Amino acid sequence: MGIEIKSPREVEHMRKAGEIVAIVLDILKKTIKPGIITEELDVIAIEELNRQGAKSSFKGYRGYPAHLCVSINDELVHGIPGKRVLKEGDIVTIDFGAVYNGFHGDAARTIAVGDIGETARKLIDTTDNALKVGIENARNGARLGDVSYAIQSYVEASGFSVVREYAGHGIGRQMHEDPQIPNYGKPGQGTVLKQGMALALEPMVTVGDCIQG
To answer: Which of 62, 107, 111, 187 reaches 20 to 30 Å from 131, CA-CA?
Structure first.
């Protein structure tokens, strides 16, 4: 399966899906505080999806039981909301996707629960900046390896490691489309990027050694 090129109209549908994801993540960020139960976050996401006339990308995907993923501290991805209580000093990653007019938006945000330590704060900032670096290098005519290399270089220069077991991906009518976008690579290699491609960059950063696939 090749990389699908989206039309301007399709890009607008995706933009709306992305806006809905951003709205939900903003609401959840304001809601997260010590003492909140993670399943409460799922309920909030459902309510906002209904207001926006959208559906969850995650609910039912390969049997997944919730509308978002909630991963705490050293958990990397795919944590299921439940009875766990967030505590002061935790960091929590909310991964969320929405479907609007048949197109998906997908994003994650790592949020501090109250006051957190210096290393945790630097980890969050580095991951956020690595995403910005990746976006800056994802331009028409560049190669996919340029994006992956830019993310890896920034993260490692900041004293952290990229995760190699998981990757970003294409997105559109399906939540996961070609291509796979690892967070490590070599410049000048890989697929040539073209206008109309839709990519979900997913820098995943750890303290210490990276996770090997």
So the answer is: 62
